User: Which sequence fits this backbone?
């Protein structure tokens, strides 16, 4: 073996053994001029072998920390449209297994974005919208799929994260415009008109009782009372055909007519 060949072989071994603890020689030029892989791709067999070789080998905390420091402050070079298309095609039809999803969920449990990271994500996404084709694909992909119910712990976390937050007037206006002129589907109307069970009604009632009621401890000002009184005076009372009692429209529809006890 020539000197150059021996050197090249040594560099390859160092490159393949880089993560092994106790490696003394960490001077490696593999991947540079002598071992440039520009324009070369691994075969499917090689990819499978690499995947198997790395399976079950978790990185040490020291290795993770070193990788994190090495990437800090470095911004990724934006992918070209051609590169994005390749990634999209390569991942088409691929899905994470339930085991993999569970691993991802556990790995991210208890992790939160910093306020700085949230701000950066918000800025990066502002002004970006899904294309009509993408919206259509997402709609079809989710049709017929029921969402996994949130746990009480998850609901509580969402509740706490949203407390004290309000939509800006600009956001409210955008939401209003986006919904205008969009008629509800028959399926949605049917869901909305579906009568609630007694259990659901009790839960809704209990959720708004006492201190849980947004108006608990609040009192109308004299001006507000006068406005309510004036608006009531303008309303015409309706007579229930079942019991004969006269009352204002809101009470009439709630307690009389089809809902009258004497019916």
Assistant:
């Amino acid at each position: 073996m020539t000197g150059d060949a021996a050197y090249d072989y040594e560099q390859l071994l160092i490159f393949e053994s880089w993560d092994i603890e106790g490696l003394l020689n960490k001077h490696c030029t593999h991947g540079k001029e002598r071992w440039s892989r520009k324009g070369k791709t691994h075969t499917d067999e090689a990819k499978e072998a690499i995947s198997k070789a790395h399976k079950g080998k978790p990185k040490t905390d020291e290795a993770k920390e070193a990788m994190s420091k090495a990437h800090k402050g470095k911004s990724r070079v934006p992918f070209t449209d051609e590169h994005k298309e390749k990634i999209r095609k390569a991942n088409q039809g691929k899905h994470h297994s339930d085991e993999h999803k569970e691993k991802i969920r556990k790995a991210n449990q208890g992790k939160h974005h910093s306020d700085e990271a949230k701000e950066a994500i918000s800025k990066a996404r502002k002004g970006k919208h899904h294309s009509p084709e993408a919206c259509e694909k997402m709609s079809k992909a989710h049709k017929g799929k029921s969402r996994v119910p949130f746990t009480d712990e998850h609901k509580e976390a969402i509740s706490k994260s949203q407390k004290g937050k309000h939509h800006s007037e600009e956001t409210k206006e955008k939401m209003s415009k986006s919904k205008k002129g969009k008629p509800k589907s028959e399926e949605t109307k049917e869901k909305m008109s579906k009568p609630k069970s007694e259990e659901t009604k009790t839960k809704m009632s209990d959720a708004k009782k006492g201190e849980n009621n947004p108006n608990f401890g609040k009192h109308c000002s004299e001006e507000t009372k006068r406005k309510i009184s004036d608006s009531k005076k303008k309303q015409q009372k309706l007579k229930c055909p079942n019991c004969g009692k006269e009352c204002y429209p809101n009470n009439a529809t709630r307690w009389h007519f089809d809902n009258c006890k004497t019916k």
User: Anything to note?
Assistant: The chain is about 55% helix and 0% strand. The two ends are 104 Å apart (CA to CA). Residues 19 and 57 are 10 Å apart (CA to CA). Residues 235-263 form one domain.
